[in-house]
């Protein structure tokens, strides 16, 4: 029976491996086969071994901690990203530290990036307000690999994991056009690639796409966009709206149903992300352009882990393809029957 604090030697004895194998399981798990890793971790539990993370970080120059910076914890998309990232981090023997900035909150993001530059992170995954932010360059120059999430990086100057947002916008707009709509609206940010894709599809069809700007990306912004639509003259009002995410779409649906509009007969609505909100938490089940949030979070962590474990320095641009999921917010009674 071990007396006092359990050591690596105690773990090695119980697991039937060398001290070096235990050390590799803790610090370089990719070097140890999965069966041996499981045996070592079971031995750690048996003897009550608790790694001293601070001491290990000083010894190997690493904390095995990856920072994940998202815009909004309240957005179900980022919750799914975090879940996927966490699972991949566990597999890589790392931890995830979560941070939030907020859409358009430049000062808040700047303060956070200054703090993170001083921390001993082994990697940073971020959905930045500005992919060209010089602070990201400064963090990389200090030796911390950066992966941009859900944003395209012009010139591929750093690694990114994203969905093809332009294609997502095309899919949403073409779906509405196929249902006979010719007056469309986009609720979101004009520079958004989703808007660009929708604008392209509308232009090709000779249809009108009206931009409804939103200051943020939450439910309240959807309520504001819905109120704007409700205030338009019937002859000018769009018959369909494509929203930058499901939260905005849910807000639009709330306003529409409150004033007695039938969805989709009076207003068709498409969201983006295909979160649980689209299928279960909205007053009307939302048609939405889905992107694999958990897979994106996991892919970003694996890029960081490659840098941590094998000193991989190549820049990668991992692009997932969006999928349109059709539900009742765009399907007429006749199409639902079919």
From TrEMBL:
One GO molecular-function entry: transcription cis-regulatory region binding
Which InterPro entries is this protein grouped with? HTH_LacI (IPR000843), LacI/GalR-like_sensor (IPR046335), Lambda_DNA-bd_dom_sf (IPR010982), Peripla_BP_I (IPR028082)
Q: Any idea which UniProt keywords this protein has?
A: DNA-binding, Transcription, Transcription regulation
| Pfam families attached to this UniProt entry | LacI, Peripla_BP_3
Kindly provide the name given to this protein in its UniProt entry.
Transcriptional regulator, LacI family
Superkingdom of source: Bacteria
Give the HTH lacI-type domain ranges: 6-60
């Amino acid at each position: 029976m071990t007396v006092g604090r359990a050591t690596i030697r105690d773990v090695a004895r119980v697991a039937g491996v060398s001290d070096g194998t235990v050390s590799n399981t803790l610090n370089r798990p990719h070097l140890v086969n999965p069966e041996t890793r499981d045996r070592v971790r079971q031995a750690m539990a048996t003897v009550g071994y608790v790694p001293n993370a601070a001491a290990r970080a000083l010894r190997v120059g690493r904390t095995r901690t990856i920072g994940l910076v998202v815009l909004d914890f309240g957005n179900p998309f980022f919750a799914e990203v975090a879940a996927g990232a966490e699972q991949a981090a566990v597999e890589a023997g790392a931890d995830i530290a979560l941070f939030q900035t907020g859409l358009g909150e430049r000062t808040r993001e700047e303060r956070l990036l200054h703090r993170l530059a001083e921390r001993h992170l082994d990697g940073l995954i971020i959905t930045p307000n500005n992919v060209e932010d010089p602070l990201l360059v400064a963090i990389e120059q200090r030796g911390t690999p950066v992966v941009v999430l859900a944003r395209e990086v012009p010139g591929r100057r750093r690694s990114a994991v994203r969905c093809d947002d332009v294609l997502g916008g095309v899919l949403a707009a073409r779906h509405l056009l196929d249902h006979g709509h010719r007056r469309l609206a986009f609720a979101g940010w004009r520079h958004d690639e989703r808007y660009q894709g929708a604008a392209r599809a509308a232009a090709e069809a000779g249809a009108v796409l009206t931009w409804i700007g939103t200051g943020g990306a939450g439910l309240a912004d959807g309520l504001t966009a819905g109120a704007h639509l409700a205030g338009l003259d019937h002859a000018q009002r769009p018959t369909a709206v494509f929203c930058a995410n499901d939260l905005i779409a849910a807000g639009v649906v709330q306003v529409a149903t409150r004033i007695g509009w039938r969805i989709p007969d009076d207003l068709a609505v498409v969201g983006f992300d295909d979160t649980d909100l689209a299928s279960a938490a909205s007053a009307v089940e939302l048609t939405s352009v889905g992107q694999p949030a958990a897979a994106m979070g996991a892919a970003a962590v694996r890029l960081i882990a490659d840098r941590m474990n094998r000193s991989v320095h190549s820049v990668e641009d991992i692009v997932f393809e969006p999928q349109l999921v059709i539900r009742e917010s765009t399907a007429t009674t006749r199409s639902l029957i079919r």
